[in-house]
UniProtKB/TrEMBL annotation:
Residues 300-331 form a coiled coil. Its main location: cytoplasm. It comes from Candidatus Nitrosopelagicus brevis. Belongs to the class-II aminoacyl-tRNA synthetase family. ProS type 3 subfamily. Homodimer. GO terms for molecular function: ATP binding; proline-tRNA ligase activity. It is an enzyme of class 6 (ligase). Signal peptide: none annotated. This is Proline--tRNA ligase. InterPro entries: aa-tRNA-synt_IIb (IPR002314), aa-tRNA-synth_II (IPR006195), aa-tRNA-synth_II/BPL/LPL (IPR045864), Anticodon-bd (IPR004154), Anticodon-bd_dom_sf (IPR036621), Pro-tRNA-ligase_IIa (IPR002316), Pro-tRNA-ligase_IIa_arc-type (IPR004499), Pro-tRNA_ligase_II_C (IPR016061). It is found in: Cytoplasm.
Length: 480
């Protein structure tokens, strides 16, 4: 039934319901029997694998290697870094029994891996020769998100990667933090066609235990900001409690310098929200499980034989060019039904081949992102498909970037701030260095400092909250 009726609400009228219907009906994911958990279906997992493959290549090129960590962490380990653990404690799932027997030390289902990884790093690292250590883990994390869950955006278990590196000095570690954020930005913009704004988190919003956090943010169509990824300079805040030391070339022991960083399947949620429309998904070509769908259209057996033959030939040529392509030759369904179904699934390019097309030695291109159609000669078709997919990506990125720019405002007063916030804007506003002002803005408006860009310094304005001299002009928004 869901396939027949498609998405039943407009994106502009009920964004939350539109999002959920799009995820479920496009068959990216489904709800699991346990509240707060989702199941990734093959199309959803394919998108994650595409992102994983792209990131893995970049990680390998910059000297990182993948490892694996277990899910269970002893409570005694978590409490070694008290501030960090306190930040996660309300979200931790605990295992207290093994079979019918009580466990002496409670085991946490891993909310994040710092404490576990750094206990091990302290065993592995002895001297400067062991550094830098650059390890990435592809795994799941579990955090008790029971109330306001939403597929890909807020679930109790989620797929992610978390990188952890150890260095001989702060300069090398801080370069790692910056390089990783740039690597993330490149991946999100070049694979998902989502423009992002990068910079630093405020002291209030930084990762628990970090010296500072760099972040990558984007604005969703409902006016809320989505944190797309973070990279943390941990300094020696973890190496000291975990006794993570190394002997330098003079055999003098020093505490190491560390970083951690990660992105999750939240990126898929951002992709759905930024590009989707009232008909469902709109997939960027570089991560689409199927990039091209071919629809044969015929009304007689004679037409059927010819059209299926040419459809198969085009499919094979596109596959040879490494295009992910499929022919939809399901006979029990009408072309119109197929059009609607593949549009809901967001396939970037549809190729229609009917009897009249065959007579003219052409096909019809139907683009998902702008729904434009035109005729294309069969001769040289592969090259045009490759070019078209790149053009679709560039168009999608440009459209999203224009929307982000149009919905970014600059204000100088608190009244202006509140007015723009109700319009669903990302807002540049001056603020002083008193943390209380940031806290009060959050309490009164639900908006927080999303990102402090590199050019955010502003000492010539007045703080929108207290009217004292400002120090920075960061970007505020309500967030997920």
């Amino acid at each position: 039934m869901g396939k027949e009726i498609g998405v039943t609400v407009k994106k502009s009228e009920d964004f939350s319901e539109w999002y959920t219907q799009t995820v479920i009906k496009s068959e990216l994911a489904d709800y699991a029997p346990v509240k707060g958990l989702i199941v990734l279906r093959p199309d959803g997992y394919s998108i994650w694998e595409s992102l994983k493959s792209s990131l893995d290549k970049k990680f390998a090129d910059t000297g990182h290697r993948n490892g694996f960590l277990p899910t269970l962490i002893p409570e005694s380990l978590l409490t070694k870094e008290k501030d960090h653990f306190a930040g996660f404690n309300p979200e931790v799932f605990w295992v207290t029994k093994s079979g019918d027997g009580e466990l002496g030390d409670r085991l946490a289902l891993r909310p994040t891996s710092e404490t576990l990884a750094y206990t091990l790093f302290a065993k592995w690292i002895r001297s400067w020769r062991d550094l830098p250590l650059k390890i990435n883990f592809w795994n799941t994390a579990l955090r008790a998100e029971i109330k306001a869950t939403k597929p890909f955006l807020r679930t109790s278990e989620f797929l992610w990667q978390e990188g952890h590196t150890v260095h001989v000095n702060s300069e090398e570690a801080e370069k790692e933090v910056t390089d990783i954020l740039e690597l993330y930005k490149k991946t999100v913009e070049e694979e998902l066609a989502i423009p992002v704004i990068t910079g630093k988190k405020s002291e209030k919003e930084k990762f628990v235990g970090a010296v500072y956090t760099l972040t990558m943010e984007s604005l969703m169509p409902d006016g809320k900001a989505l944190q797309m990824g973070t990279s943390h300079f941990l300094g020696q805040n973890f190496s000291k409690p975990f006794e993570l030391k190394y002997a330098d070339k003079e055999n003098v022991e020093s505490y190491a310098w560390q970083t951690s960083w990660g992105v999750s399947w939240r990126l898929i949620g951002g992709m759905i929200m930024v590009h989707g429309d009232d008909r469902g998904l709109v997939l960027p070509p570089r991560v689409a499980p199927i990039q091209v769908i071919i629809i044969p259209i015929y009304y007689s057996d004679e037409d059927k034989e010819k059209i299926e033959k040419i459809s198969k030939e085009i499919e094979e040529k596109l596959k040879d060019a490494k295009i992910r392509v499929q022919v939809d030759n399901r006979e029990q369904l009408t072309p119109g039904f197929k059009f609607n179904e593949w549009e809901m699934k967001g396939i970037p390019l549809r190729i229609e081949i009917g009897p009249k097309d065959l007579e003219k030695n052409q096909v019809t291109f139907a683009r998902r992102h702008n729904r434009q159609k035109d005729d294309q000669a069969i001769t040289g078709l592969v090259e045009r498909v490759v070019s078209e997919l790149d053009k679709i990506h560039n168009d999608m990125f440009s459209d999203a970037k224009k929307i982000l720019e149009d919905r970014t405002s600059e204000v100088n007063t608190y009244d202006e701030f509140k007015t723009e916030l109700e319009k669903g804007r990302l807002i540049k506003a001056p603020i002083c260095d008193n943390p209380k002002c940031e806290e009060e803005i959050k309490e009164e408006t639900s908006a927080d400092v999303r990102v402090i860009t590199n050019d955010a310094k502003d000492t010539s304005s007045k703080c929108i909250k207290c009217s004292d001299q400002s120090t920075i002009r960061p970007l505020f928004a309500r967030g997920y």
